[in-house]
Amino acid sequence: MALFKKRQVGKPGEWYYCLVHHKVEEGPECPAKDRFGPYATPEEANHAMETAQERNLEWQNDPKWNDKSREEGGGTGAP
Questions:
Q1: 45 and 17 in contact (C-beta within 8 Å)?
Q2: Burial of 34 by CB count in 10 Å (0-12 exposed, 13-18 middle, 19+ buried)?
């Protein structure tokens, strides 16, 4: 039996997008591993998946992170 129940961190007015239930939540209802956020408004949280997709595309096309040698099969790995 646990003596102390861990309380999920969050405050009213913080909005999250639950990846399991595919819904917007105020405050953390689901574990952190299953949600994106916090967002300032429910509208921002509702667009969490689109925001993540846009950020992924930016990252993939960022020349600072685009390692051409890895794509070409080069690199500095041991033979």
A1: yes
A2: middle
pTM of the model: 0.65
The one-character DSSP state at 23 is E
CB atoms within 10 A of CB 3: 4
User: Rounded to a whole number, what is the distance in angstroms from the first to the last CA of the chain?
Assistant: 53
Taking Cα atoms as reference points, which of 56, 54, 24 lies closest to residue 40?
Answer: 24
Per residue in 27-70, pLDDT tens?
888 999 999 999 999 999 999 999 999 999 998 888 887 766 55
CA-derived radius of gyration, the chain: 19
Give, as one character, the DSSP assignment of residue 4. S
67/19 Cα distance (integer angstroms) = 30
